[in-house]
Amino acid sequence: MIAAEKWYEYQRQYQKYGLALQPEEEEIARRAERKKEREAARTRGLTLKLQSDHRVMFSIVIAAAIVFMIIVVMVSYAAKITYDINTIKAENNVLAGEIEDLDVKVMSANTVVYIEEQAKKQLGMKHPDMKHCVYLSTTETPEDGFADMLKAKAYN
Description:
Blueprint: H1 4-14, H2 25-44, H3 52-109, H4 112-122, H5 146-155
């Protein structure tokens, strides 16, 4: 057991590092003044003001709420843009498929067999007879030009 004198000494030394359980007289006076001010404000119908620490905390909470709202708006806008990009990519894939189909049709329409069939069906053309064929050799050089010589041989 600790003697009473040592106990008081221990308490006095401990209060340097611990909490003061007894309020100081200045703190009691400040509380009484604040209480009087609050009562005076209530009688005049004024609202109470927050203490400075409470104001800072309140400002931080409001700022955090605004930041979170901005983040939510930005995330929703990013999701909308991503959706738009995905729909455009899907449309591009459909168009790429159509382009490939058209390329295949163009390639098949450019063949000699297809052109010959269309000439026979739509224009009523037929293969020329032997008398309408003109054969040129490399030694023959027309004086008036190739077109004039071809006309002369074909229409005479």
